[in-house]
């Protein structure tokens, strides 16, 4: 049982870190190694000054939806972890981690919705940025998709996990 507890805690921390990176880093869409776009900015590397020059992304309804859903995903996962720690020390023997599991499932559903919206509406989100055919999805977009099954699985594990002493 101790190994399962350590596994689910480690899985939770890994998915939380992956979600945070996917939300904050600047690589949801990449044109080349010198130009990319994320949920917040469109950035270009200036070889002359050797710095990234970033401008705010154009706000569309789909873009705002992806931003909000990814932030909500991180918040739900963070709340889930804090509640799990609280339940771990205060819950009576034999109790189930329902609330923790539900928060993780909601976090996974938010990440799923955000990644799906970005997949289906990237032309509207990245409009006027640059020609999309010369670009591809970046690693943060892939991290968001990888988080979805991990979050859903950890949520199901939490729902079935019983506290034993």
From TrEMBL:
Membrane-spanning intervals of the chain: 65-84, 96-116, 136-161
Keyword Signal recorded: yes
Entry-linked Pfam families: PMP22_Claudin
Keyword Transmembrane: yes
Family under the similarity heading: Belongs to the PMP-22/EMP/MP20 family.
Cleavable signal peptide: 1-19
Subcellular location field: Membrane
Coiled coil regions, renumbered to chain: none
InterPro entries in alphabetical order: PMP-22/EMP/MP20-like (IPR050579), PMP22/EMP/MP20/Claudin (IPR004031), PMP22_EMP_MP20 (IPR004032)
Protein name: Epithelial membrane protein 3b (MAM blood group)
GO cellular component: plasma membrane
Upper taxonomic lineage: Eukaryota, Metazoa, Chordata, Craniata, Vertebrata
Topology in the lipid bilayer: Multi-pass membrane protein
């Amino acid at each position: 049982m101790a190994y399962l507890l350590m596994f689910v805690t480690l899985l939770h921390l890994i998915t939380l870190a992956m979600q945070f990176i996917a939300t904050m880093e600047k690589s949801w869409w990449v044109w080349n190694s010198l130009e990319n776009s994320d949920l917040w900015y469109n950035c270009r590397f200036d070889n002359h000054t050797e710095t990234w020059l970033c401008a705010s992304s154009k706000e569309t309804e789909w873009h705002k939806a992806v931003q909000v859903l990814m932030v909500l995903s991180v918040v739900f996962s963070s709340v889930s972890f804090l509640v799990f720690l609280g339940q771990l020390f205060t819950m009576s023997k034999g109790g189930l981690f329902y609330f923790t599991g539900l928060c993780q499932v909601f976090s996974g559903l938010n990440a799923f919705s955000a990644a799906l919206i970005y997949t289906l509406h990237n032309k509207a989100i990245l409009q006027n940025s640059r020609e999309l055919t010369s670009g591809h999805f970046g690693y943060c977009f892939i991290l968001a998709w990888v988080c979805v099954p991990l979050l859903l699985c950890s949520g199901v594990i939490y729902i079935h996990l019983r506290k034993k002493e």
